[in-house]
């Protein structure tokens, strides 16, 4: 099996056209949908390390924190506390299936608008919460908003962007997530200094700002040509395609979109059809990538960064500032991915990022193991604590230019139109399910597995890196409606793709088949 057979893409069409200011601005506005997800990830970990919040809603955790000889691995172990963080992801999981139907029937921008509105209500409820029930209900509403946004935004970006810069524009979503995380961590650092003890309310209520941004943005966004054709507005679709491509000569691409839409209309039950063998490659990859993305352990770092840094010996302010530092690295490294993804491809970033994450996780586990042992009793010197922070920053950087943005980009660009909404719903739901599970059990796993937890995630990083090497073909610069050629030419997946799936509009094959 020759190495080249892993990445052979055959011949794909170049529709021409140019990159217009209009399409870049449109994609930047749409990408702000990632702000709500990012802000929530960043804010929840900081709030759960604030003593006024813990004393109001989780007094038993606060008592453990004050115990002098408490096991460092176990002092935050509380199922109720983790349910505050993880409840959002159950709601997002369920909402993504409703969002799939909405996105298909009413368009991508309507899903974004609905997501923003529901998230706004959840943010207000959390900000004024007087009891644990209000907090959890607010979190569930935030989850519905996240489910709709994560379903619609990546698909919107993939459909609007020209093939040659689709990776960079789609990664605007991940960039917005990382900016949301960083802003939340800065907000936490500031609100933690409010002496009256209501800082946590400010942190939670400010989630209304990214929600409002998404609402306003989605009102003014145009719909994608794919979505307009899907809903029977062909003239509008052609006009929009000419506008986003910056040329009147869009006949080839427009015809391919119509053909894809006609094929789509033959599919009455996308959820049943997605199980057919010809969609097997896309289905497996769209499940495996979000599954593995969460098992990198990244959300452990992002959700619980302040808690984790407190565990290894940082004080309140220092732990929140350490989280800000790792958040800033996250944003900066995402720019690396935006600059490289369409030049060097998806596979290279996946493979390099996986190797760097694996090394960092092993080293973090070794340092924490040497300092706390298996008992968890002890303290970490400032030098070792700073070493852990540096290793975590290298780990976060690797994730931010590989599995972070590519975990959303690749699943959103590989599905044919007829099952795209269903495919993206599966991607989001697997992501949210694993996020929920990891968020719910992490503090308990830290308590029981101790420093071995970092080796646990490291093992999965090794497996997922091998999966990418053998089973993910390169998709850079391939038009989204031409993606079947890539699968047909792959050494393993080719046998699942029927010849007619890569036949051109005039009955002639435009690509070559690998035996």
UniProtKB/TrEMBL annotation:
Keyword Metal-binding part of the UniProt annotation: no
Record Gene3D superfamilies: MFS general substrate transporter like domains
Residue ranges of domain Major facilitator superfamily (MFS) profile in the record: 26-476
Record flagged with keyword Membrane: yes
Membrane topology, record value: Multi-pass membrane protein
GO MF, one annotated term: symporter activity
Keywords (A to Z) from UniProt: Membrane, Sugar transport, Symport, Transmembrane, Transmembrane helix, Transport
PANTHER family reported for this sequence: SOLUTE CARRIER FAMILY 2, FACILITATED GLUCOSE TRANSPORTER (PTHR23500), SUGAR TRANSPORT PROTEIN 11 (PTHR23500:SF460)
Protein known as: Major facilitator superfamily (MFS) profile domain-containing protein
């Amino acid at each position: 099996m020759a190495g080249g057979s892993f990445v052979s893409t055959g011949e794909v069409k170049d529709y021409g056209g140019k990159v217009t200011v209009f399409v870049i601005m449109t994609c930047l506005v749409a990408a702000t949908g990632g702000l709500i997800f990012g802000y929530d990830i960043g804010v929840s970990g900081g709030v759960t390390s604030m003593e006024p919040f813990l004393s109001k809603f989780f007094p038993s955790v606060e008592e453990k924190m004050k115990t002098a000889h408490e096991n460092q691995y176990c002092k935050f172990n509380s199922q109720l506390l983790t349910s505050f963080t993880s409840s959002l992801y159950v709601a997002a999981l369920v909402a993504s299936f409703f969002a799939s139907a909405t996105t298909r029937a009413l368009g991508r921008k309507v899903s974004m608008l609905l997501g923003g509105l529901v998230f706004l209500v959840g943010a207000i409820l959390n900000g004024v919460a007087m009891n644990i029930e209000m907090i959890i209900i607010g979190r569930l509403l935030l989850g519905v908003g996240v489910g709709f946004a994560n379903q619609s935004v990546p698909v919107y970006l993939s459909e609007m962007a020209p093939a040659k810069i689709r990776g960079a524009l789609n990664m605007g979503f991940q960039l917005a997530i990382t900016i949301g995380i960083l802003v939340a961590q800065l907000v936490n650092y500031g609100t933690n200094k409010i002496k009256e003890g209501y800082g946590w309310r400010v942190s939670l209520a400010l989630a209304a700002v990214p929600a409002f941004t998404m609402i306003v943005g989605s009102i003014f966004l145009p719909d994608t040509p794919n979505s307009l054709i899907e809903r029977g507005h062909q003239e509008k679709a052609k006009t929009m395609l000419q506008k986003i491509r910056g040329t009147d000569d869009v006949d080839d691409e427009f015809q391919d979109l119509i053909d894809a839409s006609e094929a789509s209309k033959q599919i009455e039950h996308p959820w049943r059809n997605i199980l057919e063998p010809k969609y097997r490659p896309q289905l497996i990859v769209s499940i495996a990538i979000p599954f593995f993305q969460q098992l990198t352990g990244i959300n452990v770092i992002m959700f619980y960064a302040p808690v984790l840094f407190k565990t290894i010996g940082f004080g309140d302010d220092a732990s929140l500032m350490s989280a800000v530092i790792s958040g800033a690295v996250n944003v900066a490294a995402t720019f690396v991915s935006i600059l490289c993804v369409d030049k060097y491809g998806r596979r290279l970033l996946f493979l390099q990022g996986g190797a760097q994450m694996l090394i960092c996780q092993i080293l973090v586990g070794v340092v924490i193991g040497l300092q706390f042992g298996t008992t968890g009793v002890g303290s970490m010197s400032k030098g070792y604590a700073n070493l852990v922070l540096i290793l975590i920053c290298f780990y976060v950087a690797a994730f931010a230019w590989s599995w972070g943005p590519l975990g959303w980009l690749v699943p959103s660009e590989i599905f044919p139109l007829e099952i795209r909404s269903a495919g993206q719903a599966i991607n989001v739901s697997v992501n949210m399910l694993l996020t929920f599970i990891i968020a719910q059990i992490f503090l308990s796993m830290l308590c029981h597995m101790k420093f071995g937890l970092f080796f646990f995630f490291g093992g999965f990083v090794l497996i997922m890196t091998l999966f990418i090497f053998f089973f993910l073909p390169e998709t850079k610069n391939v038009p989204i409606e031409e993606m079947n050629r890539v699968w047909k030419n792959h050494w393993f997946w080719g046998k699942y793709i029927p010849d007619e799936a890569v036949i051109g509009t005039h009955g002639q094959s435009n690509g070559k088949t690998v035996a």
